[in-house]
Amino acid sequence: MSELQILSADGKSRVVPLTGPRVTLGRSSVAELCYPDDAGLSRQHLSFEIEGAGWYLRDLGSKNGTILNGVRIDGRHALKPGDRVMAGHLVLIYDARKRVDEATRVVFVESSDPGTSSSTVISDLAGIIQGESVKTADTVMGSTAVQALIRAGNELAGERPLPELFRFILDLGIQAVNAERGILMTLEDDGELLVRATRGEGFRISSAVRDRVIRNKESVLVRDTALDDAFRERRSIVEQNIRTLMAAPLQTRERIIGLIYVDSPSTLREFSKDDLSLLTVMANVAAIRIEQSRFAEMDRARKVMESELTQAAEIQRRYLPPNAPSVPGLDLAGHNAPCRTVGGDYYHFFPYPNGRVAMVLGDVSGKGMPASLLMMGLQARVEMLIDEPEDLARVMTRLNRITQANCPDGRFITLFLCVLDATTGELVYANAGHNPPVIVRGDGSYDKLPGGGPVLGILPNIEYAQYSAHLEKGDVLAIYSDGITEATTPDDVEFEAEHLAATLHAHRAKPAETIVREVNAAVAEWTQGAPAADDITLIVARRLE
Predict the structure, then answer these.
(1) How far apart are CA 230 and CA 206, in angstroms?
(2) Are 533 and 495 a contacting pair, CB within 8 Å?
(3) pLDDT tens for residues 418-448?
(4) At a CB cut-off of 8 Å and minimum separation 6, what does 190 contact?
């Protein structure tokens, strides 16, 4: 079965199987691979389609495009193992594991259940704890097993980084039962077993043993593979000369977080039932310690992140205008609400002494800290170029060249830039891939401002154009981010520009600050109070009667 490894912007990775005939990806809840928080994705962005024995990639007319091995595609393209697909802020690797080095790969060999032959012992942690398969304390006190458990308890009480802890636990297990080889694997959220530590290489483990450990929460001992029908005829076992083997779950209470497997290809000594009990108990102690370390690391990282985000949010707020400027003949207001602690939306006003005012609203792709840093860079460049410009097209072209030279792959910025003359009502503007602002007229009609070019940061040699419009007295101009128009009901119906225009018209005679509050209230009612999926930013400019 083919599969995808999906890497997201927050560093997380998951592997999903591709099951035909078609798998779609996008922000919409109807997509099989749904990423509603990724602003770089279209609602239906791309699909994987099977034909014959092969899989194909198809872009579904996405706004920001699909990149296959560094090249933007349209139509349908055949995939081969290792192909890298970029969509929004995701990187998708097709059949990545088919390229993994055989020396570091663990193969689970299909085999029948070893059952309970004379050579096989099946046990579990509960039975061992209840004393069904271990000697009493009086008879084993001072034994090698107890010494190994005491050492494990003492050693595991210390603080160790997780990678070192995995290796140390495996070494303890191998030494305790006198095994020659071993491997420790953790069970990830997607059900994948991930190798964390090994001694030896070329492991070929029975799938039946794996399933006994992971699904049934049982420990498995095969004393002699030559005597067990499930292993005697297995070529992989014969070739590796595996004589005796054991596997035990890494178990915390009722949860399985992985397994330890050990074997001995050459020793004449068979593992015993006591070895199995010892490995099972040690695996349980180790699993609890692993979980404690994971939780401790997550808690430390969370606290550091919260502190950094709080500071970043405060810095970011200082880059946004605390109040709209006072311009005779105009009533202005602005609003920004990030959906996370920090956001990627930016807006500002730049008043000029001749009754004109520049207004800027940008939306950096993505969310969180990366988007916030790009937003602050954008703000610095805009302030450098906005000194009463005579040609907004040239300003936008220069902004794009600077942004493209400094923007990471897969990131981009949409930006709307305009200058409004309070005296004449003349509006000149340039648009780089941003949502078309709307002008609501006194008669209830509204206009979307036409014209524009591609987003900033993707294509270096784009020349932008300047456009013009006119505001009559009483008209209301709204510049907004897609966090408003793409806000959805629980049934996935978007707010869209029509509802924004209707809200503006209903309150067009009110102060700009009030209009902003009414729009926010309308969006909250539309989403029925659900948390915002994207940053919400709005500028309202009302030309006074």
Answers:
(1) 9
(2) no
(3) 999 999 999 999 999 999 999 999 888 899 9
(4) 14, 15, 16
